[in-house]
Design a protein that fits this description.
The chain has 204 residues and is of the alpha/beta class. It has a domain of 135 residues: 3-Layer(aba) Sandwich (Rossmann fold). It contains eight helices and nine strands. The strands form two sheets. The protein has a five-stranded parallel beta sheet, sandwiched between helices. The chain has a four-stranded mixed beta sheet with strand order 4-3-6-5. Strand 5 and strand 6 form a beta hairpin. Helix 1 crosses helix 7. The protein is globular and about 55 Å long. The structure holds guanosine-5'-diphosphate (GDP) and adenosine-5'-diphosphate. The site of guanosine-5'-diphosphate has 16 residues, from helix 1, strand 5 and strand 6. Guanosine-5'-diphosphate binds next to helix 1, strand 5 and strand 6. It comes from Pediococcus argentinicus.
């Protein structure tokens, strides 16, 4: 029987660099896993594409989806809904491919209850000042929203212990390498990944 894919969940406060890290991992070795595109009621930012960054929907559409059991998880974050469509995740895992979710902590908790075999990663900033600076530099949120997100960040960081791994995103290249190593290690169930193992055990 074909091995079911592995679910990889990445959480962490807004602005820590989840999107940047995820894109770097995908750019370096696509096809290793599939990214699950979330649904949200948030308005698209400049440059964001519907069906690529998110499925952008109305509050009514989102609530219908919840009622119909179409969400693996969902949460209200600051002023909007965010959630993971269930069908895509199940079908992709069934096909043997890994699925990568980038979601906030309440959603991750729901996924952990439903799919405890997943690998749960928390990306954490070196410190809160640096986190705030990154959100400001990104230039996508006004100051009131930034303050709300910073308050959330403190609560989110407190849940770090619930994760299998916490990775510090100080140097982006180091964080990316650490996450890739964790994923490879989880596949093989070994504590260190030598190239020979990869050859002996085949596809990871
Ligand atoms: N629970 C849940 N959270 C999500 C989902 N998609 C995105 N998020 C999280 O919602 C929060 C806000 O996302 P967004 O407005 O795009 O801001 P950004 O992550 O700072 O770029 C972030 O913590 C995201 O990781 C989802 O499908 N479910
Ligand atoms: N290791 C890092 N060092 C410095 N800046 C970073 C680092 N990782 C990400 N950033 C920057 O921080 C900002 C927030 O990153 P982003 O990926 O949008 O975060 P998130 O998806 O977690 O909200 C972006 O402007 C990004 O370029």
């Amino acid at each position: 029987m074909k091995r079911r894919g592995m679910l990889i969940v990445l959480s962490g406060p807004s602005g820590v660099g989840k999107g940047t890290v995820r894109k770097a991992i995908f750019d370096q070795g696509a096809n290793e896993f599939e990214y699950s595109i979330s649904m949200t009621t948030r308005k698209p930012r400049e440059g964001e594409v519907d069906g690529e960054d998110y499925f952008f929907v109305s509050k009514e559409e989102f609530e219908d989806r919840i009622k119909n059991g179409g969400m693996l998880e969902y949460a209200q974050y600051v002023d909007n809904y965010y959630g993971t469509p269930l069908k895509y995740v199940n079908e992709t895992l069934d096909s043997g491919k890994d699925v990568f979710l980038e979601i906030e902590v309440n959603g991750a908790k729901q996924v952990r209850e439903k799919m405890p075999d997943g690998v749960f990663l928390f990306l954490t900033p070196p410190d809160l000042m640096e986190l705030k600076q990154r959100i400001i530099n990104r230039g996508t949120e006004d100051m009131a929203t930034i303050d709300k997100r910073m308050k959330k960040a403190v609560e989110e960081i407190k849940t770090m212990r619930d994760y299998d791994y916490a990775v510090v995103n100080d140097d982006i290249n180091v964080a990316v390498e650490e996450i890739k190593t964790i994923i490879r290690g989880e596949h093989l169930r070994v504590t260190r990944v030598y190239p020979e193992y990869q050859e002996m055990l085949g596809e990871m």
